């Protein structure tokens, strides 16, 4: 099978590239990634020489480039590429619409023209909006996004749906809760708190710190996408979640406790506008229909993640110093 993976230099995409190459020795992967600030080829350094793996630096909105890749005979697409940070979407919504909405449509169109066998669109539980104190998001929950990021993802979900309904494209949409684990860019909650604590810097917590997210270890997300890619019923949406709801302040306290750092590092800051209060996922469908089970509980997952950041200080220090950008520019020309 030849899989086009988009956004494979980002956090989840790079974990997925490793996952697939480890699991299926005869699969070929083309990784299309624009290497925005969030893309990091260091995540893939160990597989650079793998003959089943090809990296293409390019933008998913570039229909000519995307078309030329499909002409090489792509069987399936797993689409991760996106602008993914809510805070950035509040400052710069336009690039979110361009990449997440237009980019997805460009890929869908090429997939349709070349009759791919499966298009897996990796989406987020944030498209459902926010929950009160009780209840969970199911696949039937109406889309009600509240940030430019989640709105652009919801727009892309609807385009994916429309390509199935209108053209019969064999698609699936996955909607996952918050991921954590190795290679996550240190602007997101868990890695940001780990690296700030290690540097004895303050840990900024929005509002009262009581916003709730459901957390899933990234490898468990990869195993769910793997199942959807191979067994997903065309046209279906699958929610993916860890059943690990935590308030933000609980996450921060857990990290400080594991690292032996004082809670005096916590600094409450003005809340994010439109900040969703609670997300919670009902993942019964993927468990019942495809047999998915997460392997990591939150305690082991967060422990492994903290150890990874402790053991890979060079990785995140380079990001902090932007040194890795110099490396990319040397390798692939200035961006
Ligand atoms: P990320 O920001 O770490 O990585 C995104 C990748 O996409 C980067 O490598 C970036 O260079 C690439 N990219 C951005 N714009 C591009 C473009 N125009 N053309 C080609 N490549 C481009 O994101 P992530 O956290 O790994 O998330 C991956 C996907 O999973 C996203 O679609 C996101 O919406 C979804 N998702 C993320 C989470 C989470 O907790 N991180 C949860 C659920 C779903």
From TrEMBL:
Family matches, as Gene3D superfamilies: NAD(P)-binding Rossmann-like Domain (3.40.50.720), UDP-galactose 4-epimerase, domain 1 (3.90.25.10)
UniProt-recorded Gene Ontology molecular function terms: dTDP-glucose 4,6-dehydratase activity
EC number, UniProt record: 4.2.1.46
Cofactor annotation: NAD(+)
Pfam families given in the database record: GDP_Man_Dehyd
EC primary class: lyase
Residue stretches in coiled coil: none
Name of the protein this chain belongs to: dTDP-glucose 4,6-dehydratase
Family: Belongs to the NAD(P)-dependent epimerase/dehydratase family. dTDP-glucose dehydratase subfamily.
Keywords on record: Lyase, NAD
SUPFAM superfamilies given in the database record: NAD(P)-binding Rossmann-fold domains (SSF51735)
PANTHER family registered for this protein in UniProt: DTDP-D-GLUCOSE 4,6-DEHYDRATASE-RELATED (PTHR43000)
Keyword Lyase: yes
Listed transmembrane segments: none
PROSITE patterns: ADH_SHORT
Catalytic activity line of the entry: dTDP-alpha-D-glucose = dTDP-4-dehydro-6-deoxy-alpha-D-glucose + H2O
């Amino acid at each position: 099978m030849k899989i086009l993976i988009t956004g494979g230099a980002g956090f989840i995409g790079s974990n997925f590239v490793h996952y697939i190459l480890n699991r299926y020795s005869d699969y070929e992967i083309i990784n299309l990634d624009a290497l925005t600030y969030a893309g990091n080829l260091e995540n893939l350094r160990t597989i650079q020489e793998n003959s089943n793996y090809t990296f293409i630096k390019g933008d998913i909105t570039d229909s000519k480039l995307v078309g030329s890749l499909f002409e090489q005979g792509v069987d399936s697409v797993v689409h991760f590429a996106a602008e993914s940070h809510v805070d950035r979407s509040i400052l710069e919504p336009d690039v979110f619409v361009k990449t997440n909405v237009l980019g997805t449509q460009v890929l869908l169109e090429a997939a349709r023209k070349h009759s791919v066998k499966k298009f897996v669109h990796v989406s987020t539980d944030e498209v459902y909006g926010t929950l009160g104190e009780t209840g969970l998001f199911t696949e039937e929950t109406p889309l009600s996004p509240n940030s430019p990021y989640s709105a652009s993802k919801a727009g892309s979900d609807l385009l994916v749906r429309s390509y199935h309904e209108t053209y019969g494209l064999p698609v699936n949409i996955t909607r996952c809760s918050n991921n954590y684990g190795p290679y996550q860019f240190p602007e997101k909650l868990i890695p940001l708190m780990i690296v700030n604590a290690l540097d004895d810097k303050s840990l900024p917590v929005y509002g009262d710190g009581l916003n709730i997210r459901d957390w899933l270890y990234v490898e468990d997300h990869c195993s769910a996408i793997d199942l959807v890619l191979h067994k997903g019923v065309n046209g279906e949406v699958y929610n993916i979640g860890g059943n690990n709801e935590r308030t933000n302040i609980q996450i921060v306290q857990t990290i400080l406790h594991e690292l032996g750092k004082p809670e005096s590092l916590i600094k409450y800051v003005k809340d994010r506008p439109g900040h969703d209060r609670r997300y919670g996922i009902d993942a019964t469908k993927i468990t019942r229909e495809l047999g998915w089970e997460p392997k990591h509980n939150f305690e082991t997952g967060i422990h492994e993640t903290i150890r990874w950041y402790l053991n890979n200080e060079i990785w995140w220090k380079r990001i902090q110093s932007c040194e890795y950008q110099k490396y990319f520019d040397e390798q692939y020309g200035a961006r």
